[in-house]
Structures are given as structure tokens and as C-alpha cells.
From TrEMBL:
Belongs to the ABC transporter superfamily. It is a peripheral membrane protein. Keywords: Amino-acid transport, ATP-binding, Cell membrane, Membrane, Nucleotide-binding, Transport. This is Phosphonate-transporting ATPase. Residues 10-245 form the ABC transporter domain. The lineage of its organism: Bacteria, Bacillati, Bacillota, Bacilli, Lactobacillales.
Amino acid sequence: MTKTDDKVMIQVKDLKKSFGDNEVLKGIDGTVKSGQVICVIGPSGSGKSTFLRCLNLLENPTSGEVLFDGKDMTKLTHSEIAGLGARMGMVFQNFNLFPNMTVLENLKLSPKKVKHLSDEDATKISLDLLDRVGLKNKADVYPSSLSGGQAQRVAMARALAMNPEVMLFDEPTSALDPEMVGEVLSVMQELANEGMTMVVVTHEMGFAKKVADQVWFMADGYIQEKSDPETMFENPQTERAQDFINKII
Ligand code: ADP
Ligand code: MG
């Protein structure tokens, strides 16, 4: 559980997203406050990734509003959207590191390009972050030589190098061998303990139980239930969530 203040960081209002005539998100509402950790769970194909991608405009919502720090992101200009990339970090299932760059180069790229940091400053920040995820000794290797768990920790450090206000995680451990899941979750837990605002799509129910302030259950294009972790996992309030929890536990 993290400390939260009352500042609303993200507010989603009647968010809808269709691909052709496939309406994936049918009207999502939700509020993420500063310092909160929201875990999003739900069946495969229910729109969890689409929802996360709409939060930072990797997908354009079909309708509705996504307010970030009070501003409706769906109405921003291109350059404002680019600036926003700096304020929300995202970690993907498959790491998405640049294979032709060393670990350190991966980390330095955006701080230099987007934030115009000097090479010296970008290097310092990057090495500090690599240290924090326990991988300072990997600065000069290429991603192909990393294990999945190491690659995902590098991906987290790379996102953090932009000093984001919110971190979005899309199933960050589901492509990992089981023995590597823990090292990634523990970095995420530390980040949560430090007060980072996080939205985490995950199948790791243990993590959600321990770290989430709220669990959102998504199915059929809606968030069917928002509950504290104990209620969601021990005593879900909706039949849809009960069915899902019974199947996965
Ligand atoms: P989840 O992450 O919960 O598994 P997704 O958000 O990935 O679900 O997908 C929800 C639905 O949206 C699926 O039917 C998927 O095929 C569809 N979808 C996702 N992204 C696209 C896209 N870029 N183009 C077309 N359909 C998509
Ligand atoms: Mg997904």
C-alpha cells in the first residue's frame, strides 16, 4: 500500500475505442490519484492493453476524455502529445529495447533527444538508474545478451530515465521465465513504495494483493468492478469478477 495524496493524476470519462466495427472499450470511467497503484485484471482480449494505450495516446480514443493533470489529452496538439511521452513511462510485455544499442545507449536516448540533456547528465542519470535496478555492470552490453528479467529491469530503468510522473505497465512479467518474475516484481514494488503512481495490467495476483491500492476488473469493454485487493480476491462484488477470480485462483 502506498501513501496517496488527493491529487487526481488521471481521470478517464466514458472512454470508448473501436477498431473498425469491433468496439473494444465501451465506456470506461476511472480515477487514478497521485501515488496510487491501480492493478487492472481481466480475461485475455478484454481490452486491457487498449485501455493502457489510450491513457498515453499510443491509441487514439474513439470518444470520451482522458484528463492527465487536468488536461484533456484527446485534445492536445502533436507537440503537446510528444511532451506527454516524457510524463508517462510505459513498460511492455516484450521489453521493446533497441537491439542495436547498448543498455546505456538505450537509457540515454530519450533524455538526450526529448529532454535535451547533455551526454554527461544523461549518462549519470542512466547509470544511477541501472544501479537501482541492480544492473550497473550491464551498461555496455547489448540487449541480446540479457536474460528476460534483466531486459525488463533495463526497460523499467529506461522509462524512469525520463523522470515520469506515472508509470504504465502492460503485463511486464508475462513473457518471463518463472524464475525471473520475482526480480521484476520487486523493482516494481520498490517503485510503488517510493510513491510512484502506477497503472499495472497484470496476471500476478500476489503482486496485486500486496501492492495495489485498487484492483480494476475489466471484461466485455467495461470496468465491471473496482475494489480494494482484499475484496476483489476474497469477496468480489460482481458475478463476472467472481467467475474470473474462481478460474484463476
Ligand atoms: P487484452 O490486453 O485485454 O488482452 P487487447 O486490448 O489487446 O486486450 O485487445 C482487445 C481487442 O482489441 C481484441 O479483440 C484485439 O483483437 C483488438 N485490438 C487490439 N489492438 C488492435 C489493433 N491495433 N487493431 C485492431 N484490433 C485491435
Ligand atoms: Mg494485453
